[in-house]
Amino acid sequence: MSHTRVASRYVKSLLSLAEEKGLVEAVHEDMLMISKVCKTSRDFVLMLNSPIVRHEKKSEVLNKLFTGRVNALTMAIIDILTKKNREPLLPAIASEFHNAYNDYKGIGKASITSAFELDSNLKGQLEAIVKKLSNKTQVELDQKVDKDLIGGFILNVGDRQIDASIKSKLKSLKIKFSENPFVKEF
Asked: Distance (Å, rounded) from C-alpha 124 to C-alpha 35?
């Protein structure tokens, strides 16, 4: 079974338990922190995945890192994972919990790639577009800058993509010109 499928089962249980105890926000903050640690520390993730490092040592490292910094419920899921020798699932659980939290709160997720950093006015306009496309009242917008786009943007909302980049338009023009028998070279 893939890590994502197994992680999603833990996430469903954790979200349900957090909801029952009124700790959804606290557990979400903990999972964001764990996810950040996993993204910034390659050594941490390698340690979790290593078959050479004993589970007792992994448990000791996890306890030193997170005890007192995370909620007791989050610490309990970490303990369960280490007792079942499932530490490698922790990054996937942290990431998947954020997605489940967004679904739970009705937050739409989108990513925008543009040739330059967006100002607050443009971000607001794009958020309005995303709200209409996703039928959500709140939006989490992830922005990336790609100078190769020349201008315009690429917006991804769910399974939809709006490519309004100049790079894409130039590419389509090149294809049209190359297919034209009257144009020898472009």
From this structure: 27
